[in-house]
Sequence to fold (227 residues):
Amino acid sequence: KQEVTQIPAALSVPEGENLVLNCSFTDSAIYNLQWFRQDPGKGLTSLLLIQSSQREQTSGRLNASLDKSSGRSTLYIAASQPGDSATYLCAVRTQGGSEKLVFGKGTKLTVNP
Amino acid sequence: SAVISQKPSRDICQRGTSLTIQCQVDSQVTMMFWYRQQPGQSLTLIATANQGSEATYESGFVIDKFPISRPNLTFSTLTVSNMSPEDSSIYLCSGGGRMNTEAFFGQGTRLTVV
Fold:
């Protein structure tokens, strides 16, 4: 059974700092890994999708890496801004079965002005 | 990527009643899913909505409590039946293709049962 863990559960940083969020998963037989952002009480916004054959993806100030063999992914946020404050969720789509996404519990990020 | 419209965005309901949540996608999608997010928790899959047939439910979720319809490739509904305060959650609809394609989500329905 696939399990996804995100560390840390919460993170508070001053504006302008670079930061890294971590995600690990137990079953490396995945199709892809996706990072989402969730604002309080809202739905999910997709940030980055990394296919199992890829090592990293970049979008603006965001860079996500994937090491499938070790079951790890990181989300790097450069020059953080208060508007980046949200919960960041990592999810993997495991091969076989229902092809469902399995989510971690998220990292709650607060960027202080 | 496709856009999902979900409604209502929020509701406050009396215990014992039922609420139907609608999910409309602006293009045809192969897969549609319904998730629940309880307060302070991550997302848990309720079921996969299958077009033209019965939904496939995850362990711990049953059709009598969460009936789902999917009459075509762009629309689905989830009903939360005979609600209790424990059903207070955010319910999210998700769509996408198979396997290696991106998943996208609606804005969620925030349900409070009193």
Observations:
- Chain A touches chain B at residues 31-32, 34, 36, 41-46, 49, 51-52, 89, 91, 93, 95, 98-101, 103-106 (CB under 8 Å).
- Chain A has a mean pLDDT of 94.
- Chain A is about 0% helix and 60% strand.
